[in-house]
Amino acid sequence: MARTKTTYDVFSAIGEPKRRVLIEQLVLKEMTVNELVEKVQWPQPVVSKHLGVLKQVKIVREKKNGRHRVYRIQPEELRPIQEWMHQFEKYWGGTLDQLDHYLNNIQARGKNEHE
Amino acid sequence: MARTKTTYDVFSAIGEPKRRVLIEQLVLKEMTVNELVEKVQWPQPVVSKHLGVLKQVKIVREKKNGRHRVYRIQPEELRPIQEWMHQFEKYWGGTLDQLDHYLNNIQARGKNEHE
DNA sequence: GATATATATTCCCATATAGGAATATATAAA
DNA sequence: TTTATATATTCCTATATGGGAATATATATC
Question: Do B88 and A106 touch (CB under 8 A)?
């Protein structure tokens, strides 16, 4: 078998460093492809292709505007990563805020349901 | 050029789903290779190879114990991910309304997970 | 020393990239 | 309608897998 597809899920998609750079830009503000190209200085097809992957896993959404396409981030889609990270927080010391506690409990309950 | 190496950094390493499963086990308690094989039911070389990648990016550490090797997680190494996630937190802040919304999403996502 | 156990490593191959180059498509402007 | 602009897509190739099968290595036990 071959490697896991980059579009398999959000984790796979952000494994590529360039895609994280695009995300870091889009989290600041929505941008067109050429605005992104300006910012990161990569060939336009490279940007478009990486955006394509991000679009497939729904990290970004495309909004047509004339001959421009505005790309916008969909932060909710990155929640699975944040949730997955919760399992390590107990090791990092410090206090967890109430929201985190609550979410941890929810998560634990959810996991047991499938056992 | 080819794909980014899985050992390029922590993000790339956790892109592979099986490696996340191993991490999820090791965060509960340190284990030997065979204990992991027992748990996940994959061929031993598969487990060893994935552990090799995790070891290279330092997510896990190996402790020799006779002919056993105990693998232990190094949670600090995952902090870059947590830090990277900070940039999205402003979108899913801590109000109850948003928490409700979030919990609804979890439920909805759970149902679609296996499609 | 011989053997069993635990784990890593090597060899193999099908597969999916990431990026360069060129081109296609869509839409606006002239 | 012709042209310019914005973006996506196709074709290509080198590369790095992930996993199966077989084997090597290390250590414990007899």
Answer: no
CB B103 within 8 A of CB A106: yes
Eight-class DSSP state of A115: -
Answer yes or no: do B105 and A11 touch at CB < 8 A: no
Average pLDDT over residues B32-57: 98
What's the CA B104/C1' C26 distance, rounded, in angstroms? 39
Residue B83 to residue A28: CA distance in whole angstroms: 16
CATH of domain A10-73: 1.10.10.10
pLDDT at residue B6 greater than cutoff 50: yes
Interface of B with A in 35-94 (CB under 8 A): 75-76, 78-79, 81-82, 84-85, 87-89, 91-92, 94
Instruction: Tell me the pLDDT tens digit for each residue of B79-109.
Output: 999 999 999 988 876 554 444 554 444 444 3
Q: State the residue for tokens 């409990």.
A: A105
Give the number of residues written for chain A: 115
Residue ranges per domain, chain B?
10-76, 79-112
Phi, psi of A72 (to 5 degrees): -130, 145
Q: What is the distance in angstroms measured between the alpha-carbon CA of A94 and the sugar C1' of C8?
A: 38
Report how far apart, in Å, the C-alpha atoms of A9 and of each of A53, A72, A100, B17, B30 are.
10, 18, 23, 9, 27
